[in-house]
Amino acid sequence: MRPVPERPGPGQESVWDYPRPPRLERSAREVVVVLGGVELCRTRQAWRVLETSHPPTWYLPREGWLPGSLAPAAGTSFCEWKGVASYLTLVGGDVRAERAAWTYPDPTPGFAGLRDAVALYPAAVDSCTVDGERVRPQEGGFYGGWVTSDVVGPFKGVPGSQGW
């Protein structure tokens, strides 16, 4: 059963207005990722993937990452829209977040902009911010969405949302 979408206020987006299949969108907003007290990434050249019922998943260009902060991890997964993802471990100071990030080395043509960009689970790091606002992780642990005050739901991932 589809939930009742929240009504967006001024300057907000509803995830229920996002498309399916998802859309890739460039963003110049400042994104910062911190792990182990170390700033791993700062960029204004991110991509957002927008999909119905999901808060955006942010993809950050490799050149924005601190050298040595991304380590290959075992395993792959498949997305029907983007292709085969490879996993990465994030390293900040003495802290390792195993398989906390992923990348598409050879994405499908519609998502070619994501080639080698890195997405991550915000719950796995000290903090992710967008224009200085701390990101809340999408609930459920499976999806990598970033919840900010300018995005309203309800969001897929909460208990009972698998059939949305």
Task: Please give a structural write-up.
This protein is an all-beta fold. It has one domain (24-151): Domain of unknown function (DUF427) (Metal Binding Protein, Guanine Nucleotide Exchange Factor, Chain A), CATH 2.170.150.40. It is 0% helix and 43% strand. The protein has a 4-stranded antiparallel sheet, with no helix packed on it. It has a 4-stranded antiparallel sheet with strand order 7-8-9-10, with no helix packed on it. Strands 2-5-6 form a 3-stranded antiparallel sheet, with no helix packed on it. Strand 7 and strand 8 (83-92) form a beta hairpin.
Helices, strands, pairings?
Blueprint: E1 13-14, E2 23-27, E3 31-35, E4 38-43, E5 46-50, E6 57-59, E7 70-79, E8 83-92, E9 95-103, E10 118-120, E11 127-130, E12 133-134, E13 136-137, E14 146-147, E15 151-152
Which outline best applies?
A: globular
Q: Trace the largest sheet across and list its strands.
A: 4-3-11-12
Low-confidence stretches: none
Task: Please identify the structural class as seen in this structure.
Answer: mainly beta
For this structure, what is the CATH homologous superfamily?
Domain of unknown function (DUF427)
Helices, by number, come to 0
Distance between termini? 7 Å
The CATH architecture is: Beta Complex
Strand segment tally: 15
Rg result: 15 Å
The CATH class label is: Mainly Beta
CATH topology value: Metal Binding Protein, Guanine Nucleotide Exchange Factor, Chain A
Largest sheet: 4 strands, antiparallel
Percent strand equals: 35-45%
Mean pLDDT across residues: 96
How many separate domains make up the residues? 1
The H/E string reads EEEEEEEEEEEEEEE
Give the helix proportion (percent range).
Answer: under 10%
